[in-house]
Amino acid sequence: MEHADIIALLKEIQANQQSLHDDMSAVIDRLTKLEEAVNTLTQYSNQPAAIDEHQLYIAARSLVVETGRASTSMLQRVLRIGYSRAASLMDKLEENNIIGPHNGSTPREVLLDRDALSEIEEEEENGPMPIGDTDDLYDDAVQAVREAGKCSTSYLQRKLRIGYSRAAFIQDLMEKNGVIGPADGAKPRAVNP
What we know:
Blueprint (H helix, E strand, L loop, with lengths): L2 H41 L9 H15 L4 H8 L3 H13 L18 H13 L11 H11 L1 E2 L1 H8 L3 H13 L12 E2 L3
Helix pairs in contact: 1-2, 2-4, 3-4, 7-8
């Protein structure tokens, strides 16, 4: 092996180590935020009326994305809440395309990854995305829905790795431009020819 090859290999190993370190730092930061949210909620576990519903939803959303699992019993156990509250949170998580539909006794599929959740949290902190007439991912979105033959906000979130607000905005643009049909309840939208 040449001297230059060894140096190139060492530089590649160093870059991979830095990337792994950055990934681990991000995971530690997310877990710290999750732990803080759960600790805040458990302080009030004897006073359910004192818990802000939005804070509870944020904690549940973070929990299911971080763990990659979504079940009513897990929310009950970790957040120390009753069944009806946990079931209501699960419904809201499904409604907001964070988790998939009910599938028997198995935990529900988590539709967002950490990156998409980070984008949603950033949108919530910085306010809504400015509304304009276009989006730089619009063409990619059109191509993706034409290939799939269907369109939903959650599909756009997963495919384009974006947050809910942006996916909904792009979906509205596609409807306005005649690429997709109107909403039909919870069903994916039809793609126009």
